Amino acid sequence: MRNFFDVTATPLDPKFNAIHSLAKAAAERTLERFNTPNWDNTRNLLVQNTGYDPIGDWVWSERNMNSVDVRLKLNEILRVRHSFAHGFSIPAYSWTQSPTGKIRLTAKAIKDVDEFCRHLVTVTDLGMKQQIKTNYGIIVSW
Description:
Layout: H1 2-8, H2 14-32, H3 39-50, H4 67-86, H5 107-136
């Protein structure tokens, strides 16, 4: 979100810059209060503050994951993260259970989560770049 505001700034256009500065400050306040990450809250944060809706980009075709699958997986990952952050037991998901039913995180599960998150970051960056190019005519280099 911060990258969006950095690349869309036009300080030489005082009227646009005034509105842009207000929007950026409001987005920063929203980001400071962003303490319950999940699929819905993350999507809403992007839509409301940048106009970019990632829903069409948040799929993972290579892993046969449609937007519903991605939504479920991201929410599971964030619930596990929440459990760690607050000292709760790890929730039971297919990827947090051993074949015997023991709840644990394996190196494979962590690797899969890392790949999933990297994929989401990549497709979100690409989608945001396209949004900026389409709406602002700016080619982004990140």
